[in-house]
Amino acid sequence: MPNLEIDVEPGKCDEAYAYIADYQWQGLYVYGFAEDRMWRFKHNFFSFEPRYGRFNIAGQQFVWNDGLFSLAVGALNKDTGDRPVYLHAMAAISEIVVPNSVLKNETLARSGEDHYAERFRHLGSRGPNTHSSSHAFDEKTGVLFYAEVNRNAIGCWNNAQEFHAENHGIVHLDNENMIYPADLTVSENGPA
User: Could you tell me the superkingdom of the organism this chain comes from (predicted)?
Assistant: First the structure.
């Protein structure tokens, strides 16, 4: 379990959902706190992208086939009442998005992939060498931050822009002190 993302509305902790990435079996598990049950989604988007399985981290070269690795809940869409859930595989440079209402729907998950596959959408590519171990969304700024393991960097994308490689930036890159950034958290209070 490389990533656990909690989807909760203020004051409604008993109605929270936990989204759990399964990179080995390429699934997405959802635990509903109110339901006290777990269900699973599967989709081809959860698989690794074979042409992006090669890694070079601090001179160490290797191949991974890790699938779905990270999930991040975005800002509330007041028109639909949904939040986008951004997700990606580790051995990939693509970002996928799905409305959280899809993930919260246990009946839909149990009805099979044919009933929900089209709700998962390929958002686009982050660009070369942007393999990401984790990402986090900053609701105040609308920025999605990525821990980019191949570049030893923290990358970013503002969701007000189109999701294209040229609209992604690097917040910080450090080839000596930040080798393989594995985890990422957005703090409301700024740096500690």
Answer: Eukaryota
Tokens of 84: 């986008």
Locate 68 and state its tokens.
């779905």
C-alpha to C-alpha distance for 82 and 77, rounded to whole angstroms: 5
Q: Measured in whole angstroms, how far is the alpha carbon of residue 83 from the centre of its chain?
A: 13
Task: Beginning with the edge strand found earlier in the chain, give each strand of the sheet holding 132-138 in spatial order.
Answer: 132-138, 143-148, 153-158, 168-173
Half-sphere exposure of 151 (CA within 13 A, CB side): 20
Full-prediction pTM beyond 0.85? yes
- Both tokens of residue 85? 């859930």
From 88, 111, 110, select the one nearest 39 (Cα to Cα). Answer: 110
Q: How far is the C-alpha of 137 from the C-alpha of 160, rounded, in Å?
A: 13
Position 189 scores a pLDDT of 73
pLDDT at 1 (0 to 100): 75
Domains within the chain, CATH numbers bracketed: 44-173 (2.120.10.30)
Splitting the chain (192 residues) into consecutive groups of 10 residues, what average pLDDT does each group show? 91 97 95 98 96 94 96 96 98 98 98 96 97 96 96 97 97 95 84 48
CB atoms inside a 10 Å sphere around CB 85: 26
**Amino acid identity of 59?**
G
